[in-house]
Amino acid sequence: MTMSAHWKPLFWLTAAFAACWWLPVGSPRFDGALDEALLLVRWYAREHVLFCLLPAFWIAGAIGTFLSQQSVMRFLGPSAPKPVAYGVAAVAGTILAVCSCTVLPLFAGIYTMGAGLGPATAFLYSGPAINVLAVILTATVLGPQLGLARALGAVLFAVVVGLAMATIFRRSEGERQAAAMQVLEEEPARPIHQNILFLATLVLILIAATWGPGTGGPQRAIHGVKWWLAGGLSLALCGQLVFWFGAARTRVLAVIGAVAGLTFLTSGPELPFLAGILGMGVITGGRDDDLGEWFDQSWHFTKQIMPLLLGGVLVAGFLLGQPGGEGVVPSDWVAGAVGGNGLGANLFASVAGALMYFATLTEVPILQGLLGSGMGQGPALALLLAGPALSLPNMLVIRSVLGWPKTLVFVAIVVVMATVTGLVYGVIV
Amino acid sequence: MEVLVLGTGCAKCTKLYENAAAAIEALGVDAELSKVSDIQQIMSHGVMMTPALVVDGDVKVTGKVPSADEIKTWLT
């Protein structure tokens, strides 16, 4: 072995040793940040995993399994009317982009063989922001207001971004690939109204379970009966599973029995709810029909996203602290860079969001940390809009599809739109 | 026989590759299985919803993971 082969390990060993040598254990800021990280991750585990994330995984799995993606693609084909294509592209992310890794192939497909540049960029912009997991998590962690603003902002501005791209590059539209789009038709397993009612029941269970106490009036009244609502809806879901989806009666009854038993034996909704969630796995798992596929997809999301999210929460807590606390990064810096609602703060948030890579959904805890350290509501929305749609790695993929000029214009439009939206939202709230 | 698994590298694509490999193994057919992860090449098959399975140039499935048994029916 030549001497030069030793340099690389030597370098890393030295770097690791130096990091240990100067490890700032004992300094109040470092130790405080560790506490903050652990407190934040515990708060997530207690407040958001059971009633919000676990049902959300089932919903995401159900969307991927029971809603026909192929039927949506027809509206994004080359012969689709333009206004329809833009509208569908802007909202299609809810159904098509359940997993962030499917966004880029779909985008490339819509561009090269489907409805063209405008709808493709509209889809690329809104997809990551309006997929069902992102909407649910944003609304429950950051508040319904910011959740709604994110979804609406993403859809509206997707159309604007798409139209702007199509207008700027209207001349170069002709050079696209001529490969024919493959749309494989499949026979629907059951009438569409059954699928829609089924999904609506799932979503309503989640809404009932996460309903907050509020300040009074009807919201408080509903809060008082929310577990009765969730229970009734769950029974309706069981009925649907048996009569429409052909689930085994004995298993469904066993799960209902277990949940009811736990409800009487324990106080608080946590254990019965957890039993219900696990029971869903017992009812659907290991089958060859679409119930089995539903289980596979939901379980896949759970395995993929839970570790990422908890890791992201730890990192966010360490860097920024929980709301009101302080992590490694001083709150003054955050407040100085993105506090208030100035043009500078919004622009900074947009550019940072466009360059940064957020692993699926980790933008939510990071943003929560930033808000707690003094970030303004406007810049928060700007970051949410620019962030998941763009990152340095996905810019490179987009470039391989669109080429540099279109990519840079797209990035510029996204940054400008996010900044403007943040400014407007910051003024309104 | 040439069997291609198209996908950008998410877990579903890996699963499809495993199922396809299991199907080929079980049937004992002479098939060459390979992964395609380049987005331009995926597009050249007309596929947008990944993962997708292509057998001898024919797109058999897009956007979902078929079971090994289902894949067997396309290989014979």
Strand order of the largest sheet of chain B: 2-1-3-4
CATH homolog superfamily of chain B = Glutaredoxin
Number of strands of chain A: 0
Output the CATH topology of chain B.
Glutaredoxin
- Element order of chain B: H for helix, E for strand: EHEHEEH
CATH architecture label of chain B? 3-Layer(aba) Sandwich
Unreliable runs of chain B: none
Pattern of helices and strands of chain A: HHHHHHHHHHHHHHHHHHHHH
Low-confidence stretches of chain A: none
Mean of residue pLDDT values of chain A: 82
The Rg value of chain A, from CA coordinates, equals: 24 Å
Count structural domains of chain A: 2
Largest sheet of chain A: none
- CATH class of chain B reads Alpha Beta
Q: Name the overall outline of chain A.
A: globular
Q: Please give the radius of gyration of chain B in angstroms.
A: 11 Å
Note the quaternary state here. Answer: heterodimer
Domains counted in the coordinates of chain B: how many? 1
Structure description:
- The complex is a heterodimer of chains A (429) and B (76).
- With 429 residues, chain A is mainly α.
- Chain A has helices at 7-21, 28-66, 69-73, 82-91, 93-96, 103-113, 117-130, 132-142, 144-168, 192-209, 217-224, 226-243, 249-265, 270-284, 290-320, 331-338, 343-355, 363-372, 377-386, 392-402, 404-428.
- The mean pLDDT of chain A is 82.
- Chain B is α+β, with helices and mostly antiparallel strands.
- Chain B is 41% helix and 25% strand.
- Chain B has helices at 11-27, 39-44, 68-75; strands at 2-6, 32-36, 52-55, 58-62.
- A four-stranded mixed beta sheet of chain B has the order 2-1-3-4.
- In chain B, helix 1 (11-27) links the parallel strand 1 and strand 2.
- In chain B, helix 1 (11-27) packs across helix 3.
- Chain A binds chain B through residues 69-70, 73, 96, 99, 101-102, 104-106, 108-110, 112-114, 177, 179-182, 184, 288, 293, 296, 300, 303-304, 397, 400-401, and chain B through 8-12, 39-40, 42-50, 59, 61-65, 67.
